[in-house]
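Lay summary

Proteins are chains of building blocks that fold into shapes. Our project writes down both the chain and a compact code for its shape. Here are two examples, one after the other.
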Amino acid sequence: MNQFLIRSLKDNDPLMISDAFASQGWHKPVELYEKYANEQADGLRETLVAEADGQFAGYVNIVWMSDYEHFKERSIPEIQDFNVLIKYRRLGCGTLLLDRAEDIIAHRSELAGIGVGLFSDYGAAQSMYVKRGYVPDGQGIYRNGEYLHYGQQTVVDDDLNLYFVKKL
């Protein structure tokens, strides 16, 4: 049975995280996590890291000022870039990460926001967010800074999202 520890990102974590994802075939550059560490030091985000029996298992970010227009206008913190290594999924790691993120947000906001992709790779996340009480924000589908409208065509990829909110 895995024991999960949730903690804040440390300066020496970026290489370890990047390597852990590379070992399962995902390209997540070390520079991304260095950026997260710098933004955390500047108070712009909080990056939470999960460890299972001392090994990296996953992470999630809280971005205090979202780039997503609807959240930004309302000062809704956004939960972003939520990732758990495949071997630690469905063991409670993701639930613990989101629980901690929501607890931290609740000290500063009564709402939490989250975006999710719209194709099948995001199916488990879509279900998880709804089960946790997140509801669509009512703004529709969003991609690269714009809301999509009836009849508009787009590419379905990681940038096509639907955003949700939860009252904490």
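And here is the second example, written the same way.
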Amino acid sequence: MNTTPSFAARIWKCTHEALPKSGGTSLWLLKIILPVSLLVRLLDYYGAIAWLADYMHPLFNLIGLPGALAIVFITSIFLPLYASIAVMTSLAMTIREATILTLMCLVAHNLLVECAITKKTGSSFWGMILLRIGMAFAVAVFLNTLLPADNTPFQLFVQLDPFVSLDGVFNAWFQSSLVLIVTIVLIVTALMILQRVLSEFNLIDSISRPLRPLMRVFGLPNDSPFLWIVGNVVGLAYGGAVMIDLVEEGKLSLKDSNTVNYHLAISHSLLEDTILFVALGINWFIIIGTRLLFAMIVVWGRRFIIHLGRHHNNEKNHSTIST
């Protein structure tokens, strides 16, 4: 008598196991995202973000950008990219300036939410914030040096309509939150079920194996290809849900997840983010090439620093023993 579960039974088993985890993870994400999004809307309404941007004007002039564009980067730090695009496409700038600004926003956006997620998988919250802001300016210096002068105007698509009352702020937040809740629950649940289906049918290793040589080039662990794919297809926030699940189940060490976080901090959501900005006229090769290059620099730089630290400690211990 055949006791092997049917295909449908195995899919149902994966779904049944995933639902409780996806519900808890979705709730945890929403508890971070919803209050932060409301806070930033209120700060924007009362002019706090614009006030903060004023102090960044001298710094932006050093990286080849007009001081007025600082408001776009400030917005990106606190909010998802769509908010930055709305502000960005309401300002006059050249395509060269838009390219530099785009890469800055891609490296450092939605930091409070995304760094809270990476903290859950072994990374320092403030360390990740400082890393991403610092690398955003490093990328800007790199592109400002590399890109030729170009006065081609950046095309304007959206006009930003400021809110005239607190009611407008809360209504917009409430409507966007409803969409966000449904989106998060659906995506996180789908990812949790997918991860369990791939594990149930032993497909994760089949997907990961061809990408392992590329992971070694990036300086990432051998078991990171699946996480790398998820992070670059659906982004850091949603991909972080899968990583949290793997860490909690003991399938991924905090050390390895922390290493992957350093890469994904600079280069994640390559599919959606690239499509968004290519639609606005930004060169896709510059977007992908720059992000992957600096992600490699960050990971290998970190590994080199760790190696130097271990070497120094070994020499110190050897000296102590000899003494």
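What can we say about the second shape? The chain has a mean pLDDT of 83.
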